[in-house]
Amino acid sequence: MFSQTASLSPSVEYSRAGSISRRLVLAALIVASGASVSRAVPYDFLSVSGNNVAGNGASTTFTSNNKNGVITVSHVFSSPLAVGYADNNNALIYPSEFSILFPGTGKVQGHLAMTVYGDPNSPIPGGNIYTSQVIFDLTGYKANLGNLKFGIWNTTDEVPLPAYNVKMLDVNSKLVSGGLSVFGNQDNQWQVAGKHSMQYNTINGDITAPTLINAFGTHTDAIFLDGIPPGTQQIIVTGNLPPLNNIGDGVGYYFAEPVPEPSTIAMSTIGAAGLAWAALRRRRRRGQSTLGRV
Predict the structure, then answer these.
(1) pLDDT band at 121 (very low <50, low <70, confident <90, very high)
(2) Looking at the domain assignment, is residue 1 inside a domain?
(3) Among 55, 79, 84, 157, which is least packed by CB within 10 angstroms?
(4) Based on the domain organization, do 59 and 23 belong to the same domain?
């Protein structure tokens, strides 16, 4: 004789288990088929958070939304007088948008660094040049550096150029051989339009702006660089600003990364569903074996 319990009968339980398994696989197939249709965004911009402290105490973090780690940012200025009023106030350049180069990305965050132009009243002939360094530490970023896109926007065109230079250092603070390549240029769609198109010298890292694109614009458009060499630990952007005014030059920085391929996401989902299916089938076989012995 069998004692009556509150549990479901084995046949009902296994029927429900099979139904759950089928639902899991069906859901996985829906995800797999829908991923390739719905994903139109090949890149994702890293999100930005900072301490809103200007000058040498500035600290900002770019965080991957795809669990690829972080990129930290610090500033070094030649003098407290070189620190612009909006330095490290990242909210001032939100929203930014570069959806021609990066379709579908919409409004994105960036990091703002601001350097004051040199002192025109300096006793030094020609005026004092104020210097800044914006240091991007890549050691916390775990994905392929070569696929990462590094953006610079709104460098000055009002002083003799180059006023900015980009260098890369390895773990031993030695210059990394091989330069960055240019991914593309675009205006910031939510901020001021650029007057000149920014140009990057792939040999020495100098930033210039030789080409007029909008007579009514301000400074430059954005340039995005890629091909960061393996082993790069830091990207350092150095600004050397001669006298012009006491306001300063605010420059925006951005990082964008490829999003995971939909096939990768789909296969992960199908794999998880497959494991659940196999586990339930094992439970069912064990249950049937037990019933056979009763």
Answers:
(1) confident
(2) no
(3) 79
(4) no
